[in-house]
């Protein structure tokens, strides 16, 4: 672990928001598993808010090599039953901006999970579609039609020529990386002129976070930075021309929603079993639970 500074304004002047767990507890792949780490609170970061720009980040943070290893071993794809719902949710906001896209050459999805979004990119008619995902478990669980398009690796700028990518999506990944600012800078270099970048991030400014504080699922060991509408826009505006920033209504099955509830495991299981008994666990529900989307253009 090492101490860090604000990724948005470089200040090291901050206020502690939530104190971290006992430093003797080691961060493990289970703690950062996607959509599971949110309810596993054995390890927690020390969360701070920058006094200058308001960015919320974990400080200290795990070392980069250690983190790459943790992600390679963690499960970032245990939501395959929700593929259709994720595709519906993330796809509908991009559909509204399809007119902004002029070049359908190469499309890249970074932090692609099991590759569910690649289907959308194929349906748009991109000539080359690539999914980048460090978790081997997630890659292995990708559906057969997109499996060959997945690359099981961390994102490496050197794998792409500058200005060679015409569309880039990155969902709920910026929160997980060491330097979201440097990642966006890398993205801006590989994107072609007028290319579109579409990202979704958790919203620290959401009402639920204010109500639940450290018990909220987004305050978890897998996250290192948490944005709100203002800090996300500011960070993107450094490298891109922001077209639209919007709040996301996520559609999931009732089963999935119940799995996220910040209640005891026993009570959560009881609710899930009750929904299964009633045969309503697959009921689809759209809720604005605090995600923000941003669509921007390479200048
Ligand atoms: Zn700052």
Question: What report would you give on this structure?
Answer:
The structure is a single chain. The chain is α/β, with parallel strands linked by helices and 299 residues long. It has one domain: Vaccinia Virus protein VP39 (Rossmann fold, 3-Layer(aba) Sandwich), CATH 3.40.50. Helix content is 28%, strand content 25%. The chain has a seven-stranded mixed β-sheet. A four-stranded antiparallel β-sheet has the order 1-2-3-9, with no helix packed on it. Helix 6 links the parallel strand 7 and strand 8 (191-202). The relative contact order is 0.16. Bound molecules: zinc ion. Zinc ion binds next to loops.
Report a brief summary of the structure.
28% of the residues lie in helices and 25% in strands.
Radius of gyration: 19 Å
Determine and state the CATH class. Answer: Alpha Beta
Instruction: Report the end-to-end length measured between terminal Cα atoms.
Output: 36 Å
Average pLDDT for all residues: 87
In the predicted model, the low-confidence regions spanning at least 5 consecutive residues are none
Query: Looking at the chains present, what oligomeric state does this protein adopt?
Result: single chain
Count of folded domains: 1
What CATH calls the topology is Rossmann fold
How large is the share of residues in beta strands?
15-25%
């Amino acid at each position: 672990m090492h101490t860090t500074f604000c990724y948005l304004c470089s200040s090291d002047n901050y206020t502690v928001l939530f104190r971290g767990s006992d430093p003797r507890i080691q961060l493990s792949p289970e703690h950062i598993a996607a959509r599971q780490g949110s309810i596993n609170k054995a390890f927690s970061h020390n969360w701070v808010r920058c006094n200058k720009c308001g960015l919320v980040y974990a400080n200290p943070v795990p070392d980069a090599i250690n983190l790459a290893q943790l992600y390679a071993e963690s499960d970032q794809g245990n939501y395959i039953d929700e593929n259709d719902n994720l595709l519906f949710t993330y796809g509908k906001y991009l559909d509204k901006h399809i007119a902004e896209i002029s070049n359908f050459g190469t499309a890249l999805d970074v932090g692609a999970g099991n590759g569910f979004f690649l289907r959308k990119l194929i349906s748009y008619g991109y000539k080359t579609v690539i999914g980048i995902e460090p978790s081997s478990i997630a890659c292995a669980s990708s559906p057969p039609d997109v499996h060959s398009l997945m690359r099981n690796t961390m994102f490496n700028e050197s794998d792409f020529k500058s200005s060679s990518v015409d569309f880039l999506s990155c969902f709920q990944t910026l929160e997980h990386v060491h330097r979201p600012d440097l990642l966006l800078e890398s993205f801006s270099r590989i994107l072609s002129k007028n290319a579109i970048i579409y990202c979704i991030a958790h919203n620290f400014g959401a009402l639920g976070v204010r109500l639940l504080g450290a018990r909220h699922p987004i305050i978890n060991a897998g996250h290192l930075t948490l944005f709100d509408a203002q800090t996300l826009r500011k960070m993107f505006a450094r490298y891109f021309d922001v077209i639209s920033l919007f709040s996301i209504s996520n559609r999931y099955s009732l089963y999935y929603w119940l799995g996220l509830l910040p209640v005891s495991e026993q009570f959560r299981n009881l609710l899930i079993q009750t929904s299964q008994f009633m045969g309503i666990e697959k009921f689809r529900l759209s809720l604005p639970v605090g995600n923000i989307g941003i669509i921007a253009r390479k200048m």
